[in-house]
Specification:
Length: 524
């Protein structure tokens, strides 16, 4: 049987006229039996990259996808387009499952969606052997990376596909991979012969804005009313309670807002989602559970009222704005309290020390994005391994450059205090103790350890505790300091040598310095 032509499938099955970006090249490569690693931003059109080759090739395309809810949506959409698709997951009843298994065995399916954990369930490999496999697609492939932001242990088993089916092409796809994650997923999935397709992650129609948190709900209402009245948008919050409170407050302010989180009854969630998709100008206030697989092209804004846990998460969530390519905006308010709360959350979680450090690292990169004094887009693209070149002209920093404050001398004072205490007293402390030394605040420990005899004792009285906290946080955010362990013990990084000995400058946002609120324990 000859293969169907990808272009014919694109128009006849999906009703589109032309491929986008790298799609055609990826599809032809995989349809011809090659392995591929695809890095493409949210909304870039990853699904077609495996759906079309699966339809073109003989046999069934097996799609490993982590989200059961999403799986069903995809299968339903494919069936509507006339594609023979099915799914196997633990939420199905046995009868349904048997029917899908039979259809697969008898070669009736073009696509079969599987949750990765199914692969290790008894009988699954045997079942797959009884049919003919066109390809394996590994969606959200960054989940295999232990140092990524969304590790899922079940993904580790997917490396075995290379040995079990050495002749079946495999395509791994993700919208969020830093260069390190890209390398790791290639290795762990044994994709050493794959071609790599890396699209630009830039979303030029999205404007990025991040501002200090004061009265966040009022700020949010102002943002929506004054700049996006009557437009569709998503507001992300971290907890269910905050989702509900915020939705209620927006409604009081006359904004058509609906809450969405995993704790709501299914009907209510479904109703919220349907209204958002079908009506104009609905604002969904949601936890991050909302948005995956929701394909609404004209979302005009995405707002965050809590700090996301990673730049990857932030980029994925903000990426849901403006899929239609029209001007869209993302807005976030962040404050010291966010950082403190998230660090505490991480430190009290039951992950091992390495996993916690990994999460703190992700959080610090997120903080660095908030505090950057350069173009936000340049920062974001560089984070994902892309050299962006010029400032973008479409982010808050470019449009309204922050006032800067030269923090070189305070940074040097702080760094040398830490270095001295470690060298001369053999001790490490958290931020609070170092700030006490700088401000010359005595204590039992200070006299016991003779901290008051250090040459940096009292040389930082010109700054308040809150301002020193701001300096500490900035140095952590920019990778000059590390905060370690349960107590947040401070340690200078290799990069700090440039500031201490190499004449490098440290510049901070003046507003960070001026901020009084939340002075307790910013960087802990
Ligand atoms: P991703 O998985 O990369 O986030 P999707 O595969 O969900 O993106 O695609 C995003 C949207 O773009 C979907 O509505 C999809 O139908 C549409 N799309 C994808 N490829 C094309 C194309 N070549 N022409 C027109 N629309 C497309
Ligand atoms: Zn910019």
């Amino acid at each position: 049987m000859t293969q169907r032509d990808p272009r014919a499938v694109l128009s006849e099955v999906f009703g589109y006229e032309s491929f986008r970006g790298d799609q055609e090249e990826i599809i032809r490569h995989v349809a011809a039996g090659g392995d591929a690693v695809v890095l493409m931003p949210t909304g870039g059109g990853k699904s077609l990259c495996y759906q079309i080759p699966a339809i073109c090739r003989e046999g069934t395309g097996i799609v490993l996808s982590p989200l059961v809810a999403l799986m069903h949506d995809q299968v339903a959409a494919l069936r509507l387009a006339g594609v023979r698709a099915g799914a196997l997951n633990s939420a199905m009843d046995p009868e349904e499952r048997r029917e899908v298994e039979r259809a697969y065995r008898e070669g009736e399916l073009e696509l079969l969606y599987l949750a990765p954990e199914r692969l290790s369930a008894p009988g699954t490999v045997e079942l797959l052997r009884q049919g003919r496999i066109a390809l394996f697609a590994i969606d959200e492939a960054h989940c295999v990376s232990q140092w990524g932001h969304d590790f899922r242990p079940d993904y580790l088993r997917l490396g075995a596909l290379a040995e079990l089916w050495p002749d079946v092409p495999r395509i791994a796809l993700t919208a969020t991979a830093t260069p390190a994650t890209h390398r790791e997923l290639t290795e762990r999935l044994h994709l050493d012969r794959a071609r790599h397709f890396v699209s630009s992650f830039d979303r030029p129609n999205i404007r990025y804005r991040i501002e200090p948190k004061a009265q966040v709900r009022q700020q949010l209402v102002r943002f929506i009313r004054e700049e996006h009245a009557g437009e569709a948008g998503i507001v992300y919050a971290l907890s269910r309670k905050r989702v509900e409170q915020t939705a209620a407050q927006l409604r009081e302010a006359g904004i058509d807002a609906v809450p969405y989180h995993a704790g709501l009854p299914a009907e209510e969630r479904f109703a919220a989602q349907t209204r958002f998709l079908r009506e104009d100008g609905v604002v969904v206030v949601a936890t991050i559970a909302f948005g995956m697989g929701i394909d609404k092209p004209d979302v005009r804004f995405v707002a965050h009222i809590d700090l996301p846990k990673s730049v990857e998460g932030y980029y994925q969530e903000t990426g849901r704005a403006g899929r239609d390519g029209l001007p869209s905006e993302t807005w976030m308010a962040y404050g010291l309290a966010d950082v403190v709360q998230q660090r505490q959350f991480i430190e009290s979680s039951d992950g091992d020390a390495a996993a916690q450090r990994n999460q703190i690292e992700h959080l610090n990169h997120m903080l660095a994005l908030c505090e950057t004094t350069d173009c936000r887009r340049v920062y974001l693209l560089r984070y994902f391994g892309e050299e962006a070149g010029q400032p973008c002209g479409n982010c808050d920093v470019c449009l309204d450059p922050p006032k800067l404050w030269d923090a070189t001398i305070p940074a040097q004072k702080l760094l040398s205090t830490i270095v001295r205490i470690s060298k001369e007293r053999g001790r490490t402390y958290a931020a609070g103790q170092h700030i006490d030394v700088l401000r010359g605040v005595g204590s039992e420990r200070a006299s016991q350890m003779r901290l008051d005899e250090l040459s940096t004792w009292g040389i930082g009285q010109d700054l308040s505790v809150a301002q020193w906290r701001g300096v500490v946080r900035h140095l952590i955010a920019t990778g000059l300091l590390e905060s370690r362990g349960e107590w947040g013990v401070l340690a200078p990084t290799e990069a700090s040598r440039g500031v201490l000995y190499g004449g490098e400058k440290v510049e901070m946002r003046e507003e960070v310095l001026a901020r009084k609120a939340g002075g307790s324990g910013g960087a802990k």
